[in-house]
Design brief:
Blueprint lengths: L2 H18 L2 H16 L3 E6 L2 H17 L8 E4 L4 H10 L7 H7 L5 E5 L6 H12 L3 E6 L6 H4 L2 E4 L5 H24 L16
Length: 204
Amino acid sequence: MNTVNSYADYFNRLKSTLDKLDQSMIEKLVDILMQCREDQGTMYIFGNGGSAANASHIAGDFLKGISYGMEKRFRTHCLNDNIAGTTAITNDLSYDEIFIEQLKTYLRPGDIVIGISGSGNSINVIRAIEWARAKGAKTIGLSGYTGGKLASVAEFVISAPVNDMEITEDVHTIIFHSIKQEINRRVKGQEFSMGEKYDKRINQ
């Protein structure tokens, strides 16, 4: 396979995976997030590696890209962004505890917990989701492959139907970018329905 065909194969597999997504599930996730905002709850989100980067990116989108200019904002917190906290928990307890220990401090009624794991089998994600669900939180999982254990422990799961970690991570980003635009359309008006207007931030 030459280089050009390799790129085409990747893009075709990404497109095929996106085409297989159940968009009604994404719509339901938007409804869950909107209800959390209405209840003044907090969205806690986390993952490892590329999923950690996605979690941080998503939290940033909700903090600024969605909430900017709004009176009622989306309360969002990425649990893998606290380096001092996560390394202290890892060093003194276990890496498996880095998310659950933070949730034990922060979680309140009305909050939602989103765990991202490409394989669906990251132990620290699974433990946090199991604990949060037992405490009555709304639990959401994003995974790939066949969903892994996350598919059975989270209350609501969206899984990228592909056996490829990079494409799974791409799909998770795309899902939340589509959610960002839909939420902006709902709360800020129809002008966001075809994409956000960044004309005033062209130098960003």
